[in-house]
Design a protein that fits this description.
This protein is mostly beta strands. The chain contains one helix and ten strands, in the order αββββββββββ.
Length: 147
């Protein structure tokens, strides 16, 4: 648990020390995150380098909702390519058991010249309920319409 707390603090300090700007001006995006399950995903920029992502997902017979605060940076050598990292919380029902979660997220995103973006990310978490465990379900592919 100490390592996880250290990881979140280190991620926050690193993210706070770097600034950049995404290469597109749209403030909203909606689409899907596909991987371990499927999620409807909505993003809203709150500044040029920060946004909030809200996801509602289904995984088998489970349902979850999460909110992530993200820091976003350009990769200046490739137009439209950026990366992001963030932290947030989630709630859900897994195996007929209610649980909360503390989440992290890191990923790459490519914004096309049309209002479409693709991303690949990893969203590990600590799930707290009847049992406490660490989940790292793997990578997700995001497809979003920007507006």
């Amino acid at each position: 648990m100490k390592k996880l707390i250290f990881l979140f603090i280190a991620m926050f300090v690193f993210a706070s020390s770097v600034s950049a700007q995404m290469s597109y001006s749209e403030k909203n995006a909606i689409g899907l995150r596909l991987g371990y399950g499927a999620e409807i995903s909505y993003q809203r920029f709150i500044s040029s380098t920060n946004r909030v992502e809200v996801d509602l997902g289904l995984m088998g017979k489970s349902i979850n909702a999460s909110g992530i605060y993200q820091w976003v940076w350009d990769i200046s050598s490739v137009q439209g390519l950026g990366w992001y990292a963030g932290a947030g919380v989630g709630l859900g029902v897994w195996d007929k058991k209610f649980a909360g979660s503390i989440l992290g997220q890191i990923g790459l995103e490519y914004a096309f010249n049309i209002p479409l973006s693709l991303s690949i990310d990893w969203k590990p978490g600590v799930f707290i309920g009847e049992e406490t465990n660490f989940g790292f379900e793997g990578l997700c592919l995001g497809v979003r319409y920007r507006f």
